[in-house]
Specification:
By secondary structure, this protein is of the alpha/beta class. The protein contains 26 helices and 19 strands. The protein has four domains: 136 residues, no CATH class; 107 residues, no CATH class; 143 residues, Fumarase C, Chain B, domain 1 (Orthogonal Bundle); 209 residues, Rossmann fold. The protein is globular and about 80 Å long.
Length: 673
């Protein structure tokens, strides 16, 4: 088993002496790549800029196109800087790449002692205290009770089969005696969300090492201790957001933060710096506190939580997808405010009842009470704080009801993340932001002072002009007309036939995805896989395995999908990815932007998503293919230049015959190889 101690990537004397310059260090690293690597001008320029920014105490935003090798472009100067660096990534795949491939390569080339750690959120680690409680017989009530209807914690994969659930819990308990890290990623099987939740805790429920009986041997705390000893710490961007939201209590002190996949930073921080309340949190608090709450008022307080959850569910269920507390005198808002106020009072009663159980004269229950009580107080404290955020909301916040009617979620987020980031982040540490697609006006949107930041675009080494073609189906009907959808299906079918399958078709809604899959399946012979048919990893594996297969998916596949080679020759985008006019968060941002709302709010987001979707096509130097945008607005709208400027530098056409000829040449060339 892997130790939780920070990994020593190389010991002194194991390799060549540390190079004196970033250029030489980067050359030493790339020389160790398979085939000896290659010099990439963009990567060198990026590494030099990162080193200069770190040394000069400035922020840096780097647009590094696909194939640049941007991870080495920031890891090499980070390793040479002598500073503690946090690398925050938006995907687990990139975290794994950094920890398993890139960082060991850097250390080997530099020949020095470089320590790094991967730190995840608490819910990714098994909780020893929960394992002890379950092992003492605490599992049966949870195994026997299926989640209640409307519980926001219920979702796909929630296992309600007691036999299967009990078997998974036993396997997890056995694993808890063997693992050195408690990291869920080590498991040889995938437990259901409910089984894992029974043996893990999230940050809201965890009371911390000093208040938990298992604090000294806690897996999550061991991972934090390892991170505190490392020079480079790899985390998820959401965890960095939690660090900021907690006032800096999650991650070790650091000098530099690198945000990779920085195009997602605004969305992640919007979520992280906000709060959410669900009926399920009230129910969960009742379940957790029931056995440790004391006093005559305790039963009433527990019953009150159940009633409060039902009342909150009723207040939210009919308003999903809408803003609340938007400034007008709405009866439903007054009812919701009263419901939240009552929930806050109930939580305070529960806190008092649980604290009464701390009195020595009332300690008359089992050995797991201390841990359960601490978790109940932590969960209640966080819930009370989140309810207070809604009560104290200001003009810089937007509140809305998210989720589904059966599982509503009340959210509150800052309309603009720039001010809180300027206050909490940019003046405290140096930052490097990088992505293949940097949204326009990123510095301003994120609150970075223009005088403190440099921006650089190093391009991409790939030959987009000769290897890729951008096709805009200008002849298709206006998207608002009834003829639009059938015409898109026929166009997509013709393109799939020309490509021989090999198509990733991306849509802006699930309804459009499913409708297209049904219609196009009747027009082509190629196999069509649809999002939701299998888990995402299996879908991508099946798609990559069979060259004649097509994959139809929604926004979750517009980024983070990497299918190099012959399995992908056509990326089709059904429409320009503008946010819905009634999206509560974007509605609030538009109101704040006023007359410039479209250019400041909608257009930058659409340009970034469009570029990300198009970026799924060329993933290696030998890839070739077509990006087809089935929305004529990209050829006719006055704002098209902004969208096209964000795209890779492909040749462009509105003639489908040129597309069919280009795809035919690809097939012929591959057949001749």
């Amino acid at each position: 088993m892997e130790s939780t101690a920070p990994r020593h990537l190389a010991e002194p004397g194991e390799g060549p002496a540390s190079p004196g310059t970033v250029d030489a260090a980067l050359a030493a690293v790339t020389a160790l790549l398979p085939g000896g690597g290659e010099a990439r001008a963009g990567q060198v320029a990026m590494a030099e800029a990162v080193a200069t920014a770190i040394e000069g105490g400035r922020h840096l935003i780097v647009s590094a196109g696909t194939g640049t090798g941007k991870s080495l472009g920031y890891l090499v100067p980070a390793a040479l800087s002598g500073k503690r660096v946090i690398v925050a990534t938006a995907t687990k795949a990139l975290q794994d790449q950094l920890a398993e491939n890139d960082l060991p390569l850097v250390a080997r080339a530099l020949g020095g002692r470089v320590r790094f750690a991967v730190l995840k959120g608490r819910s990714n680690y098994l909780c020893r205290q929960r394992a002890d409680e379950i092992g003492l017989g605490g599992a049966q009530p949870e195994i026997g009770d299926a989640p209640a209807d409307g519980d926001a914690e219920q979702g796909p994969g929630r296992d309600t089969d007691p036999v299967r659930l009990a078997d998974q819990v036993r396997r997890l308990l056995a694993w808890s005696e063997e693992t050195n890290t408690g990291d869920r990623a080590e498991l040889s099987f995938e437990p259901s969300p409910r089984a894992w939740a029974m043996l893990s805790v999230g940050p809201r429920e965890c009371p911390g090492a000093f208040r938990c009986p298992k604090g000294p041997v806690c897996f999550a705390e061991a991972a934090r201790a390892a991170a505190a000893e490392a020079e480079i710490v790899v985390v998820n961007t959401h965890l960095y957001g939690a660090h900021l939201a907690s006032g800096g209590a999650v991650l070790p002190p650091h000098d530099i933060v690198v945000f990779d996949e920085a195009h997602e930073l605004e969305d992640v921080m919007t979520q992280s710096l906000g709060v959410e309340v669900t009926p399920g949190r009230l129910r969960a608090l009742g379940n957790l506190a029931r056995e440790v709450a004391k006093g005559d008022d305790a039963p009433k307080a527990m019953a009150g939580l159940v009633e409060g959850a039902e009342r909150l569910h009723a207040a939210l269920a009919g308003r999903t997808g809408t803003r609340v507390f938007a400034g007008t005198d709405v009866p439903a808002d007054r009812e919701l405010a009263a419901t939240l106020e009552a929930a806050g009072a109930l939580v305070e009663r529960v806190i008092a009842a649980v604290r009464r159980g701390e009195a020595p004269s009332l300690l008359d229950t089992g050995p797991d009470d201390t841990g359960r009580r601490a978790r109940a107080l932590s969960a209640a404290g966080h819930l009370s704080s989140d309810l207070a955020r809604f009560a104290g909301r200001g003009g810089d916040d937007v509140a809305w009801v998210d989720g589904m009617p059966r599982a509503p979620v009340l959210r509150l987020s800052p309309i603009d993340v720039g001010p809180p980031l300027a206050e909490q982040l940019w003046g405290e540490v140096g930052a490097v932001l990088t992505s293949a697609t940097i949204p326009v006006r990123s510095a301003q949107r994120l609150g970075i002072d223009a005088a403190s930041v440099d921006e650089l675009d190093v391009g991409s080494p790939f030959d987009y002009r000769n290897h890729a073609l951008l096709y805009v189906a200008r002849h298709l009907p206006d998207r608002r007309s009834p003829e639009s959808e059938p015409a898109i299906h026929e166009e997509l079918a013709a393109l799939i036939r020309a490509a021989g399958g090999r198509t990733l078709a991306l849509f802006t809604s699930r309804r459009a995805t499913d409708a297209a899959a049904v219609a196009v399946a009747e027009l082509v012979d190629e196999t069509i896989l649809v999002q939701g048919q299998y888990p995402k990893a299996r879908l991508l594996a099946e798609f990559a395995r069979d060259e004649s297969t097509c994959l139809f998916a929604t926004l979750g596949f517009w980024q983070g999908v990497d299918i190099p080679g012959r399995s992908l020759s056509l990326v089709a985008l059904d429409r320009l990815p503008f946010a819905r006019p009634d999206d509560p968060l974007f509605e609030a941002r538009r109101e704040r932007a006023g007359e410039r709302a479209f250019s400041l709010v909608d257009l930058p987001r659409a340009a970034t998503l469009l570029a990300q979707g198009a970026g799924r096509l060329i993933r290696s130097a030998t890839d070739r293919g077509v990006v087809a945008v089935l929305d004529p607005r990209l050829a006719t709208a006055g704002y098209r230049a902004v969208l096209l400027a964000a795209m890779p530098p492909m040749r462009r056409t509105t003639d489908r015959r040129q597309v069919e000829d280009f795809l035919a040449r690809i097939l012929d060339d591959e057949a001749a190889q």
